[in-house]
Amino acid sequence: MQLNYSIEGGDFTNAGNASSQVKKILKKLNVDPKITRRVVVALYEAEVNVAAHAYRGEIIVDINTERIRVVLKDEGPGIESIENAMTEGFSTASAEVRQMGFGAGMGLPNINKNADELNIKSDVGVGTELEIITKLK
Amino acid sequence: MQVQQIVKKLNLTVIGGNDGIDNEITGGYTSDLLSDVMGNVGDGNVWITLQTHKNVMAIASLRDISAVILVKGLKPDADMLEKANEEGIPVLGTEMETFEVTGKLFGFLQK
Ligand SMILES: Nc1ncnc2c1ncn2[C@@H]1O[C@H](COP(=O)(O)OP(=O)(O)OP(=O)(O)O)[C@@H](O)[C@H]1O
Ligand SMILES: [Mg+2]
Fold it and tell me: Are the Cβ atoms of A101 and B32 closer than 8 angstroms?
């Protein structure tokens, strides 16, 4: 099963729609709630990162009996140092975004904690691609 | 303890999400940093915050939070309220500030 979503930079109203819908679908598929939670927490943080840091992005959620694979590909400024970005507390969020309570620099660490496998590719000035894999077994 | 019991004891206003008024409370978490809550809140916790936008309910729903308390008389944005009603997660209001309401809730939950 494959699901597709898109997300626009700056659109915090719709950031979270994909994770909310995926949660409902995984519930219908009788996926263990603990696994569902890991998937949707990671997806939510990744969605918000596109809204907060990039221009636009595409999300693919691919589900089979073995694992859930989430790919987020965005057009945006990219990440200069993935190592820095993965460090808890590191954030380049704007003042406006911080006022909403984002920008603690905990999103990527949260994704890392909740994923069985996380792969990040980023080109500065082009965009970022995240692959988040959660095993179902 | 259920959400309706803390509504009574702390004299909170039920602003929305009435369907979840019987939700069982397992504890509380106080923070205005969204990804801190996302990473650290417990299942069934009450979340005390001053944030009033829709993402609060997205996190509340994804983390199965029992209720959200808005401090200092703050009101939820229209789309936050709509999502609270949709998801059936109570949004509760108080004039108390964060320190006070957190302390009181902590006291009740210890009993
Ligand atoms: N999709 C992205 N495009 C460009 N930069 C990104 C992207 N995702 C993350 N980053 C960079 O990595 C940093 C750390 O991301 P992380 O999600 O951990 O924290 P944050 O988004 O700044 O704050 P929080 O997630 O706690 O609200 C960001 O501040 C930003 O500089
Ligand atoms: Mg983030």
Answer: yes
| Domains of chain A with CATH codes | 2-135 (3.30.565.10)
Nearest residue of A to residue B40, measured between CA atoms: A110
Interface of A with B in 2-61 (CB under 8 A): 12-13, 15-16, 19-20, 23, 37, 40-41, 44-45, 48
- Cα A52 to Cα A46: distance, rounded to the nearest angstrom: 10
A110 contacts B39? CB cut-off 8 A: yes
Chain-chain contact of B51 with A109 (C-beta, under 8 angstroms): no
pTM of the model: 0.95
The tens digit of pLDDT for each residue in A58-83 reads 999 999 999 999 999 999 999 999 99
**A127-135 and B67-70 strand pairing:** unpaired
Task: Decide: A12 in ligand 1 pocket, CB within 6 A.
Answer: no
pLDDT tens column, B22-68: 999 999 999 999 999 999 999 999 999 999 999 999 999 999 999 99
DSSP secondary structure string for all residues of B22-64: TPBP-EEEE-S-HHHHHHHPPTTEEEEES--STHHHHHHHHTT
Residue type, B28: G
Q: CATH number for the B3-102 domain, one of 3.40.50.1240, 3.40.50.720, 3.40.50.620, 3.40.1390.20?
A: 3.40.1390.20
Return the percent helix, strand and coil in chain B, to nearest 5.
45, 20, 35
